[in-house]
Write a structure and sequence with these properties.
Helix content: 25-40%
Number of domains: 1
Distance between the termini: 57 Å
Number of strands: 17
Strand order of the largest sheet: 1-2-12-13-17-16-15-14
Largest sheet: 8 strands, antiparallel
Strand content: 25-35%
Shape: globular
């Protein structure tokens, strides 16, 4: 599949534009549509067509064993949370599973405080992680692009995932006995639902672009309309958490107006920007079937999973910029001199995923405020006790 055919503004049409509070969504029709036959992992779980378990009795934090028990292809989305067994995990990348096959999938832990069985097998969840966590994982995989091993290729920094889970808990003023990301949604589900309950799915859509405070945050496109339907509410829940955090941090006004013409222009620009950086696109084999295409630019993180030259899943995650980061090597600008050197260093000297990374990406202008929020978080929870 030619890279210039992957992200195409001409293949993408806005079907509607809806607003609720600081959130706007533009539902999309991307062609070709419904060109492949497969089901989501959520449908597969409901129909007992898939089994997910630890790789062994002792387990491996960053790997799970998946068995496709049916004659259909099954799709797992980057950011899907699998609950149970020794601890909850999140998929590191999107996966297109072959029928009647067993294979290992790369995951990260999103429940740091538990390492004991609460069920024999994993079950599906009604959530995916917020864009911040997905973006961080995708950046790590993009930095692994020179690694030859497929297993090493799809590793993400476990310490960063745990840090981002803790960040989400602090910013939403929630806590968890086992530091479980899922406990945030349990505690805040009613609040999040109030932020998205007027946003209705379009039955003709197979994707959406979402805006927070009028700024494009991400784009998600699926091959199939029914798979998009399976993920629609999960995407909205993640968007609501992201918006809740950003509104509090930036004192963002609750209501926001975004015109259709403006939304079309911004979405088209984001999609088209992929084709301006063809030389930086990383192409690799998917975890099971298909090809993955990744690209990190100054503004966005692009991802596409294709099979037989048909897109299975496509995403654009937009970096959140902060004025304090401009003019220096920062993690939001992959082309800044500091980060280019950091990237080369990391490729030459890959770190173990369990080790603390001390590169410039982890030491940004948000550190001081992050530590202050951490201290405040623990003081709040201590007072509650």
């Amino acid at each position: 599949m030619k890279t210039q055919q992957i992200f195409s503004a001409d293949a993408t049409t806005i079907l509607d534009l809806q607003h609720q509070g600081a959130i706007s969504i533009a539902q999309l029709k991307h062609v070709p549509i419904n060109s492949l036959e497969f089901i989501s992992v959520h449908t597969a779980f409901n129909q007992n067509k898939v089994r997910v378990e630890e790789v062994s009795e002792s387990g491996n934090v960053n790997e799970l064993l998946v068995s496709n028990l049916c004659n259909e292809h099954i799709f797992i989305m980057d950011g899907d949370i699998l609950q149970g067994a020794k601890q909850n995990r999140v998929s590191n990348t999107s996966i297109y599973m072959a029928p009647n096959k067993k294979f290992f999938i790369p995951v990260s832990c999103v429940e740091q405080g538990r390492w004991s069985y609460d069920s024999e097998h994993f079950s599906t969840s009604d959530e995916i992680v917020i864009p911040k966590i997905r973006l961080s994982k995708s950046q790590d995989i993009y930095k692994n692009r020179n690694r030859k091993s497929r297993k090493a290729k799809h590793q993400a920094s476990q310490s960063k995932v745990w840090e981002n889970v803790s960040y989400c808990m602090m910013e939403t003023d929630t806590s968890s006995r086992t530091q479980s990301y899922s406990d945030i949604n349990i505690a805040k589900r009613r609040d999040f639902n109030k932020m998205i309950d007027n946003l209705k799915i379009n039955s003709e859509a197979n994707g959406l672009a979402y805006f927070i405070g009028g700024k494009l945050t991400g784009v998600e496109i699926f091959n199939r309309t029914d798979v998009y339907k399976d993920y629609y509410q999960k995407l909205l829940q993640a968007i609501a958490m992201d918006a809740d955090i950003k509104m509090k941090k930036r004192f963002m006004k609750e209501q926001w107006s975004l015109e259709l013409q403006e939304a079309e222009s911004v979405i088209s620009e984001a999609i088209s920007d992929f084709n301006k950086h063809q030389d930086l696109v990383d192409v690799c084999d998917g975890v099971c079937l298909g090809k993955e295409y990744r690209l990190q630019t100054e503004k966005e993180m692009y991802y596409n999973l294709s099979y037989d030259e048909h897109t299975i899943h496509q995403s654009i995650l937009v970096f959140e910029k902060d004025n304090s980061d401009r003019g220096r090597g920062d993690r939001f600008n992959p082309h800044s001199p500091t980060n280019l050197q950091d990237r080369e260093d990391s490729l030459e000297n890959p770190t173990n995923i369990f080790e603390e990374e001390n590169d410039s990406e982890d030491h940004n202008a948000e550190s001081d405020s992050f530590l202050r929020r951490m201290a405040n978080y623990f003081n709040i929870n201590k007072s509650r006790k």
